[in-house]
Amino acid sequence: MIGRKPIRDSLALLICAVATGALAQSSPFDMTPERPSQTSPAPVPPAIPPVAPSQPPPVQLPTPVPSKPSASPSPPAVAPPRQEGARPVPGPASSVNSDSRRRYILPYEKLSLSGEMDRRQWSIYLTPEQVNAAVSLNIGYQNAIVVAPESSNFQVSLNNVALDAARIEAPDSEGNVLLKIPPGVLQVGSNVVALGVQQRHRTDCTIQSTYDLWTDVNPANTYIGFSADVAGNFANIDDIQATGPDGKAMTSIEIVAPTLGNPAFADSLLRLSQALALRTQMPNQTIRFVTAPSIERKAGTLTVFVGTAREIAGLGGALPPEASAGAFAGFGTAAPGNFSPLFVSGPTPQAVQAAIETLFSSISRTPGAQRTTFSTRSWHAPDVPLVMSDRRIALSELGLQSTEFSGRRFRNEFYVGMPADFYASAYGEASLLLDAAYSSQVLPGSHVDIYVNDQIASTVPISNNGGGIFRHLPIKVTMRHFKPGPNKIAIEAVLMTAQDQACAPGAPASATPRFALFDTSEIHVPDYAQIGRKPDLAAMAGAGQPYRSGGPIALSLDRFDTDTMSAAATFISRLASVAGHPIDIETVASPLVIGDRDALFVGTISQFPQALISQFNLVPSSQISWKMGAGVQVPAQNSDTLFNDWRERVDGGIWEGQVSSFEEWLKRNFDLSSETLRFLPAAEQPYAPPGNVSFMLAQGLSPSGDGVWTLATAPTSAELRDGMQAMTQENRWRDVTGRVAAYDAVAEKIETVDVERPYLYATRAFSLSNWRLIAANWLSSNVLSYSLAFIGFVSLLGLATFVMLRLMGRHR
User: Fold this and answer.
1) Rounded distance, CA 336 to CA 329, Å?
2) Per-residue confidence band for 327, with pLDDT thresholds at 50, 70 and 90
3) Rg of the Cα trace of the chain?
4) Single pTM value for the model
5) Can you name the residues that pair with 215 across neighbouring β-strands?
6) pLDDT by residue (tens digit) across 494-514?
7) What are phi and psi of 773, to 5 degrees?
8) Using an 8 Å Cβ cutoff, are 167 and 130 in contact?
9) Is the dihedral of CA 715, 718, 722, 727 positive or negative?
10) Which band of pLDDT confidence, cut at 50, 70 and 90, is reported for residue 678?
């Protein structure tokens, strides 16, 4: 055994030497292209060209051999022919990561999936090319450190087809989950995406610990990966819906209009922006007007060239020849980056106007048709139903499925919609007919809570041992927190068990279901009062009231520059989206010619007449004091501190303090306040925007009170554009209520001012039952008026009884 080793080594050296010699002998006859080495000089070309054979032999591609990189050009790669129906193979990672090979899908700027279970569902639109090229779904995320990776995972499905499970295990830095999309799952058109989590705590077993569980999903790393550059390559008008969001969940419509500064074309440009917004139907979209296109092409941006063929020639590449012959609205050849521009053009301005109208062909609603849903599928699927009268809706129709749960805090949510003239926030009650079950592990003290727009509305305690089944258990849900537009209703079950109270170290999470919610549960909304209120920003933000119907709406702009036009287009497009149809807009040269009709005002506050500012119950000095100059802010006066100082100065301060304490006691124990205990609503107080506010929406009445005026303003035109873009995002737009909504850009929040004396106006035909409900809601909002009316009615009843007895008594 010892003597064989040197023999074996000698044989190995001999074989290597022979192989090296053989390679050296055969190298001159190699038909492959020469691979230059870094050490050897470049070969000298022969002086005499070789003679070509009469019949060329078949060429056989050599097997590629890896070599060191060199400066010499390499031959082009030969791709095999694509077979019909075959799915394309993903290209190199460097090209797959470009925006042209990504379809960002998250419609939320910030998505945090919290608790032991959470889920979002929405729809995305895909073109035929995108469906054929889709290969994977990537999710970028980061989770709380207390999330246990061994029992926490994502639950993702496309069109109700579940994808592979993936663990949640990225507490220190952002992680990525790559899921393969099986063939045939996606379809051309609308596709439903469901993204959910199931999370468990590492160590704690309390109910409170479930609030520490969260997973933040990054929209910049959540996308569908394509094997080809098809993300922005569109062919027909319907593909506008596939624009989608960008890496920040924003959708931008960039309208290149060389005639932007001409007021004569303002109405046409604003109508075009509405058509595009109604086609994209994205929750966070903004309109930008420019006179020249951006050099960079990126995802989530639809570039539109509008104007006559002569005006836009050369701005966006080759103009389709149809634009010179007649009205044309369609996509042109893809620009660098494979993003197709949209051309709306024609030989004359009249042809351009006709091309704009063609974009409304498939989205216009029949005049007089009753609206049945709010279009929310781009951020919540299915569309939210509009409840106009007494109606019962099963939760299965609202997107919920029967679910079993083995954790400690169950939560699920759905949406219902209310019309613009909803008026039942002071007395109305809906009912949730609950179909659910809980196991014998659940202890008394557990409860089921109902939330409306994140406000607690009802609680049902669980007081029985041994488990139980709820079969259409009626749960009264106050309509106090309902408002016009979509309303979120959440069902939350807090479950206490002996196992969780013991919380044995190292004990595995329970897999036995403790709670079940069945999709046969129903939400019952009874008849409620319906009457319009003005001013009311909630009705405008929820359903576009009062600008969704009637004659042309007057629009006053302080100037026709890019920032002001962009802000106006974003605002009007948002109103068209919530109204469900385009809004007829007529720009006016001056606010003085509007009269008493409904109107919109967009511009910087310093450019409007002082009389107009007073019409919105704003402090006239706001035109000067609101952010005087760059970086200078008027310090906000603390009214509470000033009031307390004066209370100490004057006589009776102790008595005033006692009154304040008594008011706080009434509020705490009986939910009564000075606003409730009033005979008539208080007068409106002028509002002065503080220095921290950068943008403001205000609503008031016309001089005669017939029309509703809405003002969108800011100190500068740049803040006007940015503030409008921020406020019209879905997560902030739903908070627009009252008569003033002011946006704080630093804190990223909206401050509102309630309407003290709303003006009520009829929106429907006279109905005795409706007016009875209107009176019930008004009297419930004004308790003192109700008490006095009740006392007066009882007094009249007593007087009538006294008179009757005197006339019909025994003495007669």
Assistant:
1) 21
2) very high
3) 34
4) 0.81
5) 113, 143
6) 999 998 888 866 555 667 899
7) -70, -35
8) no
9) positive
10) low
